[in-house]
Design goal:
Elements (H helix, E strand, L loop, with lengths): L2 H13 L16 E4 L9 H5 L5 E4 L4 E4 L9 H5 L5 E4 L1
Antiparallel strand pairs: 1-4, 2-3
The structure holds iron/sulfur cluster (2 copies).
């Protein structure tokens, strides 16, 4: 399994774990936050600055988890990522 697929797998597993949050900024088929695992260094900054706790980074195992149901699309994580790995994408 290549590195990218490995992280994608975890992304989806986590995504389905949680129930839908009432204050989510998302609706169906809308753009959502994505991480480019080719350039992410798993520093954890995005997870630390997200006030909604929508991102959790496992630095040791190099896994980036995102829960779109908690995200309010404030964009703080995108602005704080030093390598530009995050963006909104539909
Ligand atoms: S801040 Fe950027 S490099 Fe650091 S874990 Fe988040 S997405 Fe990856
Ligand atoms: S856009 Fe805002 S709420 Fe969504 S993951 Fe980033 S920091 Fe958290």
């Amino acid at each position: 399994m290549d590195e990218k697929k490995h992280h994608r797998k975890h992304f989806h597993e986590r995504h389905h774990e949680k129930s839908i949050g009432e204050n989510s900024g998302y609706s169906k088929n809308e753009e959502e936050l994505v991480c480019n695992f080719e350039i992410c260094v798993f520093c954890g900054i995005c997870g630390e600055i997200c006030k909604k706790e929508a991102i959790a980074v496992d630095q040791i195992n190099r896994i980036w988890n995102f829960n779109r149901n908690l995200c309010v699309k404030c964009g703080h994580c995108i602005r704080h990522c030093k390598v530009g790995a995050l963006k909104f994408e539909s």
